[in-house]
Write a structure and sequence with these properties.
The structure holds 2 protein chains of 2 kinds. In chain A, about 45% of the residues lie in helices and about 25% in strands. Chain A contains 14 helices and 13 strands. By secondary structure, chain A is α/β, with parallel strands linked by helices. Chain A is elongated, with a radius of gyration of 33 Å. At the A-B interface, helix 2 of A face helix 1, helix 2 and helix 3 of B.
């Protein structure tokens, strides 16, 4: 029945992983036998006489980590099934492999335990070779799971840190499985929105530097929150200019609509800020340009300093349209206008833009979008 | 049900401990002490007509018995455990008496084995 003695086994896998093994069995004979065998094969045993005692021990911070649990099925005071269910329901304990100890006449119980999440089983008339092999296998599994957990925690931490430097979408992309291919470059239809300030140069020349920095902080905080709320991908902040993409890296079917909604919200939010600064003697207004088209998106830059960005006509056009916009104006290119509810904008003629050989038709977002009229209607009857 | 203790199974237990006879003696002492407790529990369960406790005690004595080589006793325990689980054990006191006798026989043989090798 038993083919190996302990001495032989020790020679076979000297240096195998040692672990802390909890023996849960109500029969003193079994506990004594198992704990002694565990010591002999290099593990550190702990004991509990039933499920309740085992859970109390496992949840006691003084116990320290347990690597494997050997669990008897028939026990008074919380049997093996109840104990297994409680272990699997406990976030902190569910990853500890459970080896069920079973008599030969209890094999259907073993099946039930494995269905409930037990890792393996061990016959009651225990063969040290089998004990050693099963514990080693479960320990290996546990180590892997621990490493996996630590790795996932590291990734989460890094992602959180990255998100402070990159837009959340790009931070998620960097740590995603297909991130490398996406960063290497891909072509996609996007909507680009460029926003900057009229008179910012004059303002920065006439205002105190502290005022300029204070204003920029407020401006960036206001726009940053709106970009996140509309799930845009912030490409960069450069002084008073910001570039936001939609439909990349996260796909958004309504990218043109989203960008216009973001622009309308920026304009609305900025009204208050603008009025505040006007009282201080500075005229500051936003101008926004939006264009839709294909662009090559990905990692742009050089070794040591890369940005996530894009190259394409739509991006240049958004920037040029922003330059064309007068105070508080939101200018759209034709493809953006075509993709949104036409009530949101109206044609404002053709413009010659630097770098574009022919004049292009331009549209301006209406000052009262459907949202604004809905709000007006809700606030009371218009007389 | 010839020998109370199956010599081959007992030898396997000794082998399992790596031939540490002191450990074997400790295990046998634990078995005998716990066995007495389980028999007390069985008698109490019969008096109280508590099948659940009866089955649990039989289960407990069974696993130790099979490990020390008391195969016949283990089988009596297994049968009682099963009967108790099914709900009614009309002959409970006869079964417990048989287990008591089986345990006594096993105990004598285990202690005799120890006596026998003591002078070595």
């Amino acid at each position: 029945m038993k083919e190996h003695d302990i001495g032989e086994l020790e020679r076979i896998d000297a240096g195998a992983l040692a672990g802390r093994v909890l023996v849960v069995d109500d029969t003193p004979f079994n506990r004594q036998l198992l704990t002694r065998l565990l010591v002999k094969i290099g593990h550190q045993p702990l004991e509990a006489a039933d499920g309740r005692a085992a859970l109390a021990l496992l949840r006691d911070p003084a116990t320290g980590p347990v690597d494997v649990i050997l669990l008897d099925i028939v026990m008074p005071e919380m049997d093996g099934y109840e104990t297994l269910a409680a272990l699997k329901a406990d976030e902190a304990l569910r990853d500890i492999p459970v080896i069920v100890i079973s008599g030969v006449d209890e094999l259907d119980s073993v099946v039930r335990c494995i269905a409930m999440g037990a890792a393996d089983y061990l016959p009651k008339t225990v063969d040290p070779a089998i004990l050693r092999a099963r514990i080693a296998a479960s320990l290996g599994q546990k180590r892997l799971r621990d490493q996996e957990r630590a790795l996932l925690e590291t990734i989460d931490r890094q992602r959180a840190q990255l998100a402070r430097f990159l837009s959340p979408q790009v931070a998620a992309l960097v740590s995603s499985p297909d991130g490398e291919a996406m960063l290497a470059g891909h072509r996609r239809e996007i909507t680009a929105m460029f926003c900057d300030l009229r008179n910012f140069t004059t303002f920065s020349e006439t205002a105190e530097p502290e005022e300029v920095l204070g204003f920029l902080r407020l401006y960036h905080a206001t726009l940053g929150a709106l970009v996140v709320a509309h799930e845009g991908t912030l490409e960069h902040f450069a002084g008073d200019g910001i570039m936001v993409f939609f439909n990349d890296p996260v796909l958004q079917e309504d990218h043109a609509h989203r960008s216009v909604q973001l622009a309308l919200d920026i304009r609305e939010k900025f009204k208050g800020i603008s009025a505040e600064w006007r009282r201080r003697g500075h005229v500051l207004e936003v101008g926004i340009g939006i264009a839709t088209g294909y662009a090559t998106m990905g990692r742009i830059g050089f070794e040591g300093r890369y940005d996530y960005g894009g190259v394409g006509n739509a991006i240049i056009m958004a920037s040029r349209l922003s330059g064309e916009a007068v105070a508080g104006q939101i200018l759209l290119a034709a493809r953006t206008y075509a993709a949104i509810d036409e009530a949101l904008a109206e044609p404002v003629g053709e413009r010659r833009l630097k770098g574009f050989s022919r004049p292009i038709p331009v549209y301006a977002a209406r000052s009262k979008g459907p949202d604004a009229s809905a709000r007006a209607a809700a606030s009371g009857p218009i007389t | 049900m010839t020998d109370p203790i199956d010599a081959a199974v007992f030898a396997a237990l000794v082998e399992m401990t790596g031939g540490e006879i002191d450990f074997v003696d400790e295990l046998v002492d634990t078995y005998l002490e716990d066995g007495r407790n389980q028999l007390d529990a069985m008698r109490a369960a019969v008096a109280a007509e508590d099948d659940r406790s009866l089955g649990r005690a039989a289960h407990s004595l069974k696993s130790g018995s099979l490990n020390v080589g008391a195969m016949g006793l283990g089988e009596l325990c297994r049968a009682l455990e099963e009967a108790a689980r099914s709900g009614s054990v009309p002959d409970a006191s006869e079964r417990v008496a048989a287990i008591d006798a089986g345990f006594d026989g096993a105990r004598r043989e285990l202690l005799a084995e120890r006596e026998h090798r003591a002078p070595r």
